[in-house]
Each structure stands twice: as C-alpha cells, then as structure tokens.
Design goal:
The chain is of the alpha+beta class. Helix content is 19%, strand content 33%. The chain binds zinc ion.
Length: 264
C-alpha cells in the first residue's frame, strides 16, 4: 500500500466519532485543500490553528450520522495512522487530540456553563466562572527491560493477533517517572528493575497520551503475569522475536534500539 507524504499544512483532518475521513482507494491519504464545505459536509465544529513555526492544523468534527462524500470513507484512525508515515501521523494525532479535548470541554466542569476557546493561549475558558481547562495530556511510561541479552516483551489482549511489545503504563498522581517504571513492571510481571535511563518520548493520541520511553535492567524476580493486564510475557533473544510494533511508535524504536545494541 502506497503512502503519500504531502504538505501537512493543507490537510483537513475530519473526524466522525473516532474514525477519520480518507479517500476510498488503494492509497491511504487524507483530504488536502478540501475543507468540509467543499466536500459537502456540515461539521459540528472546526478549527484552523496556525502555529508560529508555520505549521497549520485543520480539523473538523462531524455527527455520527454523517455519510462520507463520494469516493471517500471514514476509517478507524489507528489503522490509517499505521500506514500514514511519521509526519502525517504527528499532525493527524495533534488534530485529533485538539478535537477530542474540545468536544469533552464544551461545558464547565465546575459550574456547567458553556466554555469557549481562549484568545490568548491554548485553553478553554468558562463563560460564567472563568474556570480554565488546558488540553488533557496523560503521561505514560514505556520500558524496554533487558536481562542477559534478552528483552522483556508482553502481549496485551488489545493487541493484534500475535503481536508482542515492551510494557507500558500510565503515571499516577504523586509518582516520579522512575516510580512509575518500577511499579508498572512490578504490577504487570512481578519483577524488580534498576538502571532506569530515559530514552525519548512521543505524543500518542489514543486518545491523549504522552509516551515516555525508558530502558532498564532486570534486578530480581521471575516473571509472573497479571492476567488482568496482559495475557503473556517472556524474555526474548533477537533470534526468537515474535511480531513487534513498527518503528512509527516509540515501542518499535525502543525494540530497535535493543536489537542494534545486541548486534554491536
Ligand atoms: Zn464555570
């Protein structure tokens, strides 16, 4: 399947619930220079946001009953993003994040009055009590744990069939990132880790995470999985790797980093 990389500033990200509007052909691409009006779609709301660096993010939200224009379809966002390429993935994720945050902050959580976009910063302000809501961002850690040349990989029931990945979990109030790394690994597979090192980060708009990648080393304990969270986990040497995520995700990048170090 061919993926088109285009000028992301021209692209309209049009969402119907959690699906995104794409052309209905064998090439997955997004509407460019075609705003909802030209496409004959009436959005519930839309925004065109220009950033100082020159980036422009355009999104629209349509009702659940909206039919796609001829030659187009609404497709599951995660599936589309997997083949969109890194740049489109980032702009589409940003568009979804703002769309989703806006629709969840139409009314004030304190007094129930309507909210509106701030004119001076990226926030929503209550028209009655001045309560301010900033975009929700949920930090989560994702960790590549190594033991004697093997990598810890687990399988969530939510993954596509056969897929394994490094373990991840949300940061809880009051935790440092290092606390979260230790707690998540302990909770999910009952092992202790140390030598925790920061690797890198990636916005992950499903729906509003920020993934913070770490590497760590096994310290003690044998794998015993929490069956509520994962259905299988184990230590894998590069030769016996199962199916893993693409390098579009930080999970894939962490695994790639492990493999590269093993070869050197
Ligand atoms: Zn209010």
């Amino acid at each position: 399947m061919e993926t088109k990389t285009r000028n992301t500033c021209l692209i309209w990200h049009i969402f119907r619930e959690d699906d995104i509007l794409i052309y209905d052909d064998d090439q997955i691409h997004l509407p460019e220079e075609k705003n909802p009006e030209i496409l004959g779609i009436e959005p519930i709301r839309f925004r065109e946001t220009a950033y100082p660096e020159g980036e422009v993010i355009k999104w629209a939200e349509v009702t659940a009953e909206t039919e796609p224009p001829e030659g187009m379809k609404f497709a599951p966002r995660r599936k589309v993003l997997e083949v969109l390429g890194e740049e489109n993935f980032a702009s589409s994720g940003k568009a979804y994040h703002f769309m989703d945050w806006t629709r969840k902050n139409l009314f004030c959580g304190r007094c129930g009055s309507p909210m509106k976009d701030s004119e001076v910063e990226r926030s929503r302000i209550c028209t009655h009590c001045d309560h301010v809501e900033y975009p929700t961002i949920s930090p989560a850690v994702i960790v590549a744990v190594e033991k004697e040349g093997k990598l810890l990989l687990g399988r969530s029931p939510r993954f596509p069939k056969g897929r394994y990945s490094v373990l991840a979990g949300f940061v809880e109030p009051g935790e440092s990132l290092e606390d979260t790394v230790k707690r998540e690994i302990r909770e999910e597979v009952s092992i202790e880790v140390d030598d925790i090192e920061y690797f890198g980060s990636q916005p992950w708009p499903f729906p509003h995470s920020l993934m913070l990648g770490f590497t760590a080393k096994w310290k003690s304990g044998a794998i015993r999985i929490d069956e509520k969270e994962i259905e299988d986990a184990g230590w894998f040497s590069p030769e016996e790797f199962p199916e893993i995520p693409t390098t579009l995700s930080i999970a894939g990048k962490l695994i790639g980093h492990f493999l590269k170090n093993r070869k050197n």
